[in-house]
Amino acid sequence: MNEVSSKWGDLAPRLFSAIGMLVVGIVAVWAGGVWIHLLVSLSCGLMVWELVRMLSGASSQRAIWLAVISGFALFAASYAPYATLILPLLLAPSFVGFSLLSAGSRPFTGRRIFMSYTAMILVAGFSLIALRDDFGIIWMAWLLIVVIVTDVAGYFAGRILGGPKFWPAVSPKKTWSGTIAGWFGAALFGAVFVGLYGGGITVVVVSVAVAFASQLGDIAESAIKRHVGVKDSSNLIPGHGGLLDRFDGMLGAALLLIIVELFLDFPPSVAG
């Protein structure tokens, strides 16, 4: 009985938090425009705050400043009048942070992790904003649902089926059964999406690739947490830990989407 309670003890707060985030996300995605820009910019700023706190081992004024700078940089990039300004704006917080975190009496050993992961957060955030702005609500919803289905299928399959670990040295809880279930869930949703809106087999294939990228995003954040010796990125979200714990998969998925867009005519035009 105790083992069952331990296995499912986090389910209730996890579900309530997920419902709350889902409602906020649906409203922002549906509204689009400045609302999705603000939500993504705020979320990414908070992720940078969590990252600095994890790497520095304590809350600090620098973490707050870097969160504000990062959120503002992403918001500004989403309204940049020239495309040539976008990448410099997205990368600027990484370099500002390197300078700030090098200053002071307390040594900061995670500067390289901070620079690379902050850039990843902001580029992924810009990808999400651009997806909503350029391709509309349907494709934004597609990406969000693929990541959610991957996570939910992996969570329940891993808890129920168990089995060998996917990468125990980095993410001890992630199993092969959960990983593969995530791929199947994404493929199934991709097929349903094609049936409703069209797009062909490419949508199904990319859905599975996005699912795997979201899992790699999860593993990347797990590697950072394992490196610094923390369980969660923060305690902002009951049952989930922090924003990075919840949206690390979304970061990986959004980054892959940028790469896919460079080589394929994706997302394709769809009905509706």
TrEMBL record:
One example of a Gene Ontology biological process annotation: CDP-diacylglycerol biosynthetic process
Pathway(s) of this molecule: Lipid metabolism; Phospholipid metabolism; CDP-diacylglycerol biosynthesis; CDP-diacylglycerol from sn-glycerol 3-phosphate: step 3/3
Membrane topology: Multi-pass membrane protein
GO CC terms, sorted: plasma membrane
Subcellular compartments: Cell membrane
Reaction it catalyzes: a 1,2-diacyl-sn-glycero-3-phosphate + CTP + H(+) = a CDP-1,2-diacyl-sn-glycerol + diphosphate
Molecular function terms from GO: phosphatidate cytidylyltransferase activity
Entry's family note: Belongs to the CDS family.
Protein's name in the database: Phosphatidate cytidylyltransferase
Organism, as annotated: Planktotalea frisia
